[in-house]
Structure formats: C-alpha cells, structure tokens
Amino acid sequence: MAFAHVPAPAHLPAPAVTQAAGFAQHVDWSPLGPVLIPAALAVAVLVADLFLPPARKVLLGWITAAGLLAAGLALVPLRGGPSATFCQTRSQSPHTADCSYVTDHFTLAIQALVLGGALLTTLLSISTLDEMPAGEYWFLLLSSVTGAALLPAARDLATLIVALEVTTLPAFALVGLRRDDRHSSEAALKFFLTSVTATAVALLGVSFVYASSGTLFLAQIGSALPLTDAGPLYTVAHVGVALTIVGFAFKLAVAPFHFWVPDTYAGAPLPIAAYLSVVGKAAGFSGLILLVVVGFRPYAHAWGPAIGVLAALTMTVGNVGALRQRPDVSRGAVRLLAWSSIGQAGYLLVPMAAAASADDPAHEIGTTVAYALMYAVVNLGAFAVVALVERTAPLSRLADYRALHARRPAAALALAFFLLCLAGLPPGVIGLFAKVAVFSTAVGTQHGWLAVVMAVNVVIALVYYLRWTALLFARAPESAPVAVGEAAVVRTPFALGAAVALTAAAGLALSGAPQLVLRFAQGSLL
User: Fold this and answer.
1) Which residues, other chains included, contact 11 with Cβ-Cβ below 8 Å and sequence gap of 6+?
2) Over 22-59, what HEC string results?
3) Backbone angles phi, psi at 156, to 5 degrees
4) What is the pLDDT of residues 348-361, one digit of tens each?
5) Backbone phi, psi, residue 101, to 5°
6) Interacting residues of 506 by C-beta distance below 8 A, sequence separation 6+
7) Whole-model pTM?
8) Is-contact 256 164, C-beta < 8 A?
9) Cα(176)–Cα(451) distance, rounded to whole angstroms?
10) CB of 378 within 8 A of CB of 507?
11) Minimal CB count within 10 Å: which of 41, 73, 265, 479?
C-alpha cells in the first residue's frame, strides 16, 4: 500500500472485517517475480556447482549476474499500479488491509535498489572468489537477496520478521566463508551473536504488539492499537513498539547498537562488506519504515522523538569513529567506510523522525528512499575501488592510497568522486542534493535541533572524506616502499572494472539531474 493511503492517527478507521473462505488465500503470482527469480536461481547455481569443473566455476558468477538482471527487469511490468497477493479475502483491491505482500511504488524503489546493489556486489565478487567455495557463496548471496527483496513488500509482522531473517542468516555465513581466516570467523561470530540478540528482542516486541492489537497485518495494527491509557494493553503495546524498534536498530547498526559493524566489515570478504553496507541496510530500513509509518503510526508521538535521538547519536558516533581512523592500520580503508556507513545511517533516520509529525509522511519517506539510492551508488563505487587497490595492496591501509593518481589515475579520480559525493561537495552534486533534501525535512518540522546536529556532523565528515581524497593526489615520498605488485602493470579484471565504471557513470548522470532521484523515490507516494 502506498503511504498516501495511511491516514493520520486521529482519523484511523476501524479495520474492515471480512470473512475469508476458511484459510484460503487469494494468490497472484505476477508481482512475485523479483523475489522468486533470485530464490530459484539460488537453487540452480547450487546444483550447477556440482557438475562444473573448477576452471568453469566463474560461470556461476555470470549466471548470477544475468539472473539478477532478469529479476530487475521483472520490476518493469509492475509499474502500472499497486498490486497485492497472499490476501485472506477474494478481493482484488491492492489496498486491502489483509494482504501479506503488496507491490507499490515504495516496494519497487527498494527492490530496484536491492537488486541493483546485489548485481554490483556480484561484479565485485567474480574476481575475488579464489579462496571461497563458489557454489555455496552464490547460493548464500542469492538467498540473502531473496529476503531483502521480500522485505519492502511485506505487510504483516510474520512476513516482515521472516524476510529480515532470510536476509541476515545467509549474510553472516558469507562473512565467515573464508574458513582459514581467523578474522573472518571472529567477524561472523560477532555478527551472528548480535543478529540472534536482535531477533529475540524483535520477536518479543512483535508478540507484545500482536497481544495488544489482535492482528499481524500492519494496516490493521495501525487502527487496533489502544490509544488511551485505559488498561494494561496500553503499556504492553508501548513496550512492544519499543522492543520491535530496538530489534531493528540492532540489525541496522544504529548507535548504540553499532558495535559489531567495524569488526564485521573488516573481517568479511570485501564484496560482502559492500553488500551489508548497502543492500542489507536498505532492506532493514524499508522494514523499519513500514513498521513505524504504517503499523505504529498511532504512537508517532513516542517513536518520533526516539528515532530523532537515535539519528543524532548514530551520525555523531559514526562520523567521530571514521575521523579517528589512522592511515597505517590494516584494513583501515574498510573500517573507515564501515564507520562512514554508520554515520550515513544517522542521516537516513532524520526524515523518518520528521515523518512522525507530518500529516502525510510520503514526502519524508520519499526523501529517505532517495538518500538511500544515492548512498547505494556511491558507496558501492567506493568499495569497488577499494577492491581494485587491494589486489596490489592486500593490507588495505589508508596509507596505501597515497599518490594513487600516479599509479592508477582512473581509479583515483573515481574514488575522489565517490568520496566527494559522500561528503556532499561538488562535483558530487547528487550527494549535496540528497543532504539538502534530508536537511530540509528536519528544518520544516519540529526537529530543528536535529538539523543543527546534522549540520555539525556534515562538517565533521568533510574532514575525513577530504583527508582521504587529498591522500589520493599527494606526492609519494621517494623512500616509500613499493607495495607488493605495484611495480608491475596489474591488469584490472573485467567485472571489477565494470563495477567501477557503472557506479561512476551512474553517479555522474545523477549529479547532472539530481532531482530525478527524488522524483523517482517519491513518485506515487505523494
């Protein structure tokens, strides 16, 4: 359902009572293509892995890329209008309150981000799978993509939690897939323990919400939650809402639940760190948006200020953490991007906090989606350049990027552009436009203090983004040792070069017409 159909709390109608024919559901398979294609492909590549010789395993990566492209094309026929399936009535209306899967403009925007991010992750992975089992890798990645594509379409609590776990469980297996790497195993264990804790907290919250509302469907929860302190259910409902949001905050690495991110990203295979920073984050945010804006709308007076505080804390912790990264630390480049992703998550929360006080939250939610789309393109591009540099500087220290322009001028220019986009400076106009759009949502509502905090954090972020950018074009000291392999001409793999080129081209195109992102993200949400 589109957010434009979510009324303000004071005007919420009573949930429609319909009589389903037993447990029969209305099922329309046409909207399920973006979810079914990755799921079927996951099984196909696992089976194909049994019959391919080691020298031909690379075909599995290209098959995965082709399948994700097909899943993306499956979104095109769905642009005609909202549709719903797995409904407990025979109604064909896409706005029924008892459907588990709804495809609207919000769903399509997030699914496009998920599938596009997964496709770029695949390109990053094709040239970095030498030490990992190919079949298991592609199976786990596609399984996680299936859950991430399902999340924005979920419209009941059960489907939402299942989709979140399908996204997360294969992801921590991917983090630890390098079995002979102690850091990878440690990162996977930390990710797993955090994920289990988050799931337990979220499930407890969901059970409280169900007990107080009597329904699992998000649209019905919005009108069934108790609005007055007339009994114990009112307290149970508030506790359930709080616990559910905390559970999602763990998954999204929102401060103070962010502690697992730097070590997990540093220990994970680089393409998986990129995947978690973009696809995992986008899927988790889509679930949180559906919860608070659709399901918990009557309690906006409670979750709005709470999300505002979390936004301020998250962006501050992330940016200060990134600022403290030293140039000579192993995996320092990945750690800086990890801390940066935490700070960017804080920016993504700002419009959500502003949506609590808006009569129609469509504009604010559209701004969050637009910022997520911008962030996905440039952050994946930055990870692609880091993957390129790691081929000759496996320690991935920030110091390894000194004078990169002299060794790899195209890579240096691309990374500089991506960092300037993340900082919100020209020529990264898309980053500046996205930050201004987020800033305006806070200024135009009751969250002026949040706009001030965001302005301070943008200045802090400028320091470490510009410091890394300046390092790319600094003069290399004559006594500096040459990194392993730097003295020879190293050929860039086609898939990795394509990932850098695609993200750079997309960033440049969007910087030329940044308003297209906001229009696409908001679209029929208005």
Assistant:
1) none
2) CCCCECCCHHHHHHHHHHHHHHHHHHHHCCCCHHHCHH
3) -140, 160
4) 999 999 998 887 88
5) -135, 115
6) 377
7) 0.91
8) no
9) 39
10) yes
11) 479
